[in-house]
Write a structure and sequence with these properties.
Layout: H1 3-32, H2 40-67, H3 73-78, H4 81-84, H5 86-115, H6 119-140
Length: about 160
């Protein structure tokens, strides 16, 4: 196995952690908007969501800048042709930008929810920003459902 295939497999599997933690964090924040106290579990799930997002970003940046031919190396090889091909453009630009925005949204949600004093405000901030992050993630994952050549689970 090459370092590329190992990092790609880790990146592929870590997305499931991001999705699971994201769904739980969004659900907990949504349920808490009616006045439930902000608990350690709420804080912990937000931290798990943001932490898994940061790990996923790190793995993705390693792929993009060092290992993958569909990352920054795509511009060296094909130049402007990358932007004309929807598949190449997705990985070279759209996936990267969308996922960075998702990480930023998740981090903003975590920061604002930690700084808020009122538990309802904590839940509302977390819900809004975590939901934005989760939607971006869902939109930017190259799902194998629509492209059978892309597996849902890499080994």
């Amino acid at each position: 196995m090459t370092s590329y295939s190992i990092i790609l497999a880790l990146h592929s599997w870590t997305r499931w952690l991001v999705l699971i933690f994201g769904l739980i964090a969004v659900f907990r924040a949504f349920a808490g908007r009616q006045g439930r106290p902000w608990t350690g579990a709420d804080n912990g799930m937000g931290a798990a969501f943001v932490g898994s997002m940061h790990l996923q970003l790190l793995l993705g940046l390693i792929l993009y800048f060092a290992l993958s031919k569909v990352g920054v190396k795509a511009f060296d090889q094909a130049g402007a042709a990358v932007m004309k091909n929807a598949g190449s453009r997705f990985f070279a630009v759209e996936h990267l930008v969308g996922m960075i925005l998702a990480v930023v949204a998740a981090q903003v949600g975590r920061t604002l929810s930690k700084k808020a004093v009122d538990p309802v405000v904590k839940h509302k901030k977390a819900f809004t920003w975590f939901l934005i992050a989760l939607i971006l993630v869902l939109l930017m994952i190259p799902w194998g459902i629509w492209n059978p050549a892309r597996p849902l689970f890499r080994f």
